[in-house]
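To assess whether ligand presence alters the predicted conformation, the chain was also submitted together with magnesium ion. Input:
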Amino acid sequence: MRYKGIIFDLDGVLCSTDEYHYLAWKALAERLGIPFDREKNRRLRGISRQESLNILLEGSGISCTEERKKALAEEKNAMYRQMLARMSPADLSRRVKTTLEELRKRGLKLAVGSSSKNTAFILERVGLGSFFDAVADGSCIRHAKPDPEVFLMAADRLGLAPRECLVVEDAPAGVQAAAAGGFDCAAIGDAGELPGAAGYLKELPDLLQYLE
Ligand code: B16
Ligand code: MG
């Protein structure tokens, strides 16, 4: 087999928490009286919470101290966590679960590489708290995607070199992070939106065929 390990992005790849990010940012934007739509939300995929806030505030005329920005990011996160708290194993797609189990049966090591500081909480909620061989996330890195740090850490925790791992991503920042770290990347989406990936999948379960 070409790869020994697979490193999965979390939001938008393993589960649909990207919708909750959107709803929480939207609620914050409404409270602040600034426009925010799904198009702007797409720019936030894969990047850190603080960087997302900077994009949200872009062109709003609101200038904030670092302390105020921290408070706003925390406010968004509190709303997001309320939505996460209502998640259960039923929120993990059955097809995603069986795909993960099949990959493991094939002898692959499986890891998560996510920018999110809520990764452990989300994995726990959907019943994957102790499933992965390694997890690297926003709480243990200094530089978020498009920096490769989170994927390099995940590979290191699997005991594998980047060239032995395939990264699965849904966001431009993640595809760039994979390339910067020397990883092949299978992108969920198309080449127009996610240039630079080694391959493209319509949805996660397509990975099984992609690896054959
Ligand atoms: P948090 P991923 C990313 O997760 C999200 O795509 C991105 O929208 C979010 O801002 C980032 O995590 C930080 O999340 O606020 O929970 O720490 O796609 O890298 O799994
Ligand atoms: Mg993602």
